[in-house]
Amino acid sequence: MKILHVEGGAHLYGGAQQVLYLLQGLGGHGVESHLACRPGCDLARRAAPFARVHELPMGGDLDLGMIGRLRRLIETLRPDLVHLHSRIGADVMGGIAARLAGVPVVHTRRVDNPEPRWLVASKYRLHDRVIAISEGIARVLLAEGLPPDKLRVVRSAVVARDFQQPCERRRVLEALGLGHGGEGGELLLVGVIAQLIERKGHGVLLDAMPALIERFPRLRLVLFGKGPLAGRLQQRIDAEGLAEHVRLAGFRADLGQILPCLDLLVHPALMEGLGVSLLQASAAAVPIVASRVGGIPEAVRDGINGLLVPPGDVDALGRAVAALLADPALRRRLGAAGRALIEEEFSPGVMVEGNLAVYRELLS
């Protein structure tokens, strides 16, 4: 079986990381994988041992030239099918290119952003199968008119061992600019791992911070990730006198070392397809407070590995965070349950088998 994968993302964030896991796993099943991606992107370098990489210019949703470039690649390779992994133009341009080349198309949908029914009716006509990474996304697609016979659900995965290293707390605190954290008692280290964009809900958590800081003076909140809101968030942190307790850490390649040292992960998203950072936190045995929205309840089971709150509810979010910060035993119990959940339901092996089942079904 020969598969051409198309990923248009520039960074090795959640979706591109899932593509890497898939390419690694498919090699063990005798699949010949090819990857079309942006020149010089992180995924191109990391995927090279597992796939033949074809670097192509990908300019986003308005890059009509992508159709011709991908069509020529498809006609040269003659894959059994094309698997489109991102939006950013690849979902539409890649679908058109594969149709023109006469090759079956699979598209993975990773976000639960609503789309108008007319767009769903036209865009997904290009795809033979649509894979949703959560039941939450699947519900959105069905509500927007996607034919049920096209839809399959294959959840995202995480390599648990990458986030199960012993915590070197002093090193992590110093790396984050928090000192060693020993003066006046142990710090309570809380993280948010998400792009700095509106729908991730950082502002909701900042609204809850003054009351949390008053109750937990040793609280330190670290926002991991990049995005267009970085400047506005920093301005707000400075203007509201939160700089001692809240800091932006940007994108970190060493989350495998940082996560085991967090006391709590908070994910106050207003919309979310599933949330790979939630899987990573659970793999590290870190308890979670998150919004009950989209596919999050599939990754965070309320009262099992974390607590769920209504999206945008500042008071409910603050109460849930406070409940866990005040109860170390509860944090340990939820963290242990999260690690077990990842091993049972979110392993790369399960994800690879799910994608393979879609390929085999379509090609048969």
UniProtKB/TrEMBL annotation:
Recorded GO MF terms? glycosyltransferase activity
Per UniProt, the keywords (alphabetical) are: Transferase
Q: Does the keyword Repeat apply?
A: no
Residue intervals of the Glycosyltransferase subfamily 4-like N-terminal domain:
14-157
The chain positions of domain Glycosyl transferase family read 189-339
Record's Gene3D superfamilies?
Glycogen Phosphorylase B (3.40.50.2000)
At the top level of its lineage, which domain of life is listed?
A: Bacteria
* Keyword Transferase on entry: yes
Under InterPro entries, the record lists:
Glyco_trans_1, Glyco_trans_4-like_N
Q: Cross-referenced PANTHER family, in alphabetical order?
A: GLYCOSYLTRANSFERASE
Q: What is this protein called?
A: Glycosyltransferase family 4 protein
Species of origin reads Thiohalocapsa marina
